[in-house]
Amino acid sequence: MADKPIGRKKNVGTGGSGVHRRGKALGTGPVGNPDGYSSSNKNPGVGTPQRSGGRSPLFMIIVILILVLGGGGGLTSFLGGGDSYTTEETAQPEFSNTTSQTTTGSGVSSTSSTGSALSTLSQLFGGYSAYSGGSSSSAAWSEPANTGKLNTAVDENARPKRTTILGDGEDVITIMVYMCGADLESRSAMATKDIQEMMAASLGENINLIIYTGGARQWQNNVISSSTNQIYQVKNGKLSLLQDNIGNLPMTKPSTLSSFIKWAAGNFPANRYDLIFWNHGGGSTGGYGYDEKFASAGSMSLSGINTALKDGGVTFDFVGFDTCLMATVENALVVSNYADYLVASEETEPGIGWYYTNWLTKLSQNTSMDTLSIGKNIIDDFTNACAQNCPGQKTTLSIIDLAELSQTVPKELADFSKDTTEKIKGNEYGEVSTARSSSREFAASSKIDQIDLVDFAIRMGTDESKELAETLKSAIKYNRTSTNMTNAYGLSIYFPYKKTSKVDSMVSTYDAIGMDDEYAKCIQNFASMEVAGQVASGGTSSPVPSLFGELSSQGSGSASAEMITQLLTTFLSSDFSSIDGLTSGNTSFLGKSLDVEQAAGYIASNQFDASKLVWTKASTGEDAIKLSKDQWQQVKDVTYKTFYDDGEGYVELGCDNAIEIDDNGCLLAQSDKTWLSIDDQIVAYYVIDVQGTEDNYAITGRVPCYLNGERTNLIIVFDSENEDGYVAGACSDYQNGETETIAKNATELVEGDKIDFVCDFYSYDKTFNGAYLLGEEMTVTGPMSDMVIMNLPVGEGDVLETYCFTDIFGQTYYSPTIKY
């Protein structure tokens, strides 16, 4: 059958030790679905589940949000340096915590069982003859990728640049690096390593490289103080202290940054100024920075960044973010008031971060280099270093012309927003939802709802969206990504889907930074319809009812518009707590945007009927769930969860997307009683992200574990060149809500690392019993590329599977559990 949906191909082998947990419960809360259970409630029973949807008197369904985590990790040396990318791993091998991966994939030969997964069910209708009606999520026009193409043209409407380049190498440049070390330094010496790269650069007299340090409980070198903030200069290969005892000041406080900007500009006057933010980034919702010495201070919001740059009083040639997730339209509009260019990443950055040696050396050789060339060098150095040192980890970096973007994008964004709002109000919410759910999402596991705006616009397929996409691509002058990163054009934007609790705060942010209110209206209308759909369908956040066969309350049909109107009216007069994360304090968008009667009519005509999730037999005799074409059209994603009965309860093995759908639209159960393993050891595995096409795809998942005693996730990648998959690295978890920013990804595992895999466990008395160690401790004995991934038999115990269907309102439904 041609044009199968994207899916993980199961490489099924024999042998292995099966599933076994060991020791006592770890007391850490769930590792598989933390959104369902708070860390403070480690034993939620079936009788008192936390809720993520309203309760309908006609029908109740079981819902669980598919969760994955992000994290960080890194490097460990302060000595040496180098002049090529290999310094990331070889400068001081006796202190290094990384190693180079030169091959990917396992190359294991065994029986192959091919499954197919859906990132959206629109792919089903486009690829299966049973549903040949096409899909509204398909792009209305084809758009070539803008990766690796330098665009030097400037729109005629762009404002003049604020920085004037003198030419002939006469320019003096002051580069300010705002380096909040945080846990990246105290745990992994990432800041130390980047300073080492800066010291290895050949800097001339016309380059002033000034570093402000702080934010780390412990600096992994014998130079920088952990007790006070300091200012250093990198000169002649050395790190010279300029200001000591500045004070123990929070680095996420805008006044700390603005004071540094004023000091650096006052003491090192130049005609070109550059500013680099170094630390974590959380995108438009999370902002910049995590100061581990002042965790309660939170991050620096976009409005805080705006305040800091305004009070600093300096106009910058470029502002860069050596952080995760800050290449957003919102951030670009803020920075455009103070700089000509923005250099930032849409996705989480690999732990090695920017590679500083080469681009600084080139700039020193010609301080009159145009800013686009500087940005291109930064981007090329970064992406090349990541490709060599951490292949498999997603990488993005782009440079945006803010003088152009600020004058061209706001109007096109407003027109696009107005048109999208009209679609939502005009009973085309499903089309918008499909485009949104199909768009490239960043830090998907953290549910910050940040998507590539060009990709979203392309999928919307309207005249207004095409104009917006073209305008954005014109302002994005250079963009590069890793080979496994598709549909990332260089600028993202917040658009709610997985969490609506941030809508009000983002609307407030838009007002604070002076962003046009048409986009705010658009996301308020979309979020209102999404919440209304969730209220009408109901659900719980616990998988336990499905596991224990308690799905009788899922209902026997669909509600009428009149009944839904009553439900919504009651909901709007309540405290909103029936929807997970919502309170009376973060739901003003509902009162401003929700037309109850219109919403009720639309929902009544576009409901997913969970009562149809019943097991029957396909024509081949296999266990199957068969839905009508109309019901499939309400489904945007399908995955399945697997549990293993070990004689004392149920071990949760994770969530996978190696599903199979036959020509008749029957979802076939996975009856082979196998699960994903690493080096012959069964592990808990959770799919994170599915992107691409059948011929060029990348599927990313995570495996919860302890790495050398620290809570971590191994990152697993399956792509079109490595169908059997490979381990791409590890990222550490934040366990206690330390920050809303997202940590940089770790670099690779190294020989001698100790890994203990972790799983969730449910006892027969219907409670979450805790997280346990799974299998035996594993010691890394070679490069990650040698680690073998395959599906192996889980053992003699029963295997229980329940399938998760996500509808256009972001609500997730469980099928009844099937046992093998």
Number of helices: 21
* Alpha carbon gyration radius: 26 Å
Largest sheet, described in full? Answer: 12 strands, mixed
Helix content: 25-40%
- Unreliable segments (pLDDT under 50, ≥5 consecutive)? 34-140
The structure class reads: alpha+beta
What is the general shape?
globular
Strand content: 15-25%
The number of domains: 3
Task: Kindly report how far apart the N and C termini lie.
Answer: 28 Å
The overall pLDDT average reads 84
The total count of strands amounts to: 33
Biased composition (Low complexity): 96-113
InterPro entries: Peptidase_C11
Biased composition (Polar residues): 36-53, 86-95
Organism: Butyrivibrio proteoclasticus
Describe this protein's structure.
The protein has about 800 residues and is of the alpha+beta class. It folds into 3 domains: about 10-45 and about 100-135 and about 610-820, no CATH class; about 175-410 and about 475-490, no CATH class; about 495-535 and about 560-605, no CATH class. Helix content is about 25%, strand content about 25%. Strands 2, 18, 19, 24, 25, 26, 27, 28, 29, 31, 32 and 33 form a 12-stranded mixed beta sheet that branches. Strands 7-6-5-4-8-9-10-11-14 form a 9-stranded mixed beta sheet, sandwiched between helices. Strands 16-17-21-20 form a 4-stranded antiparallel beta sheet, with no helix packed on it. α18 crosses α20. It is globular, with a radius of gyration of 26 Å. This is Peptidase C11. InterPro entries: Peptidase_C11. Keywords: Membrane, Transmembrane, Transmembrane helix.
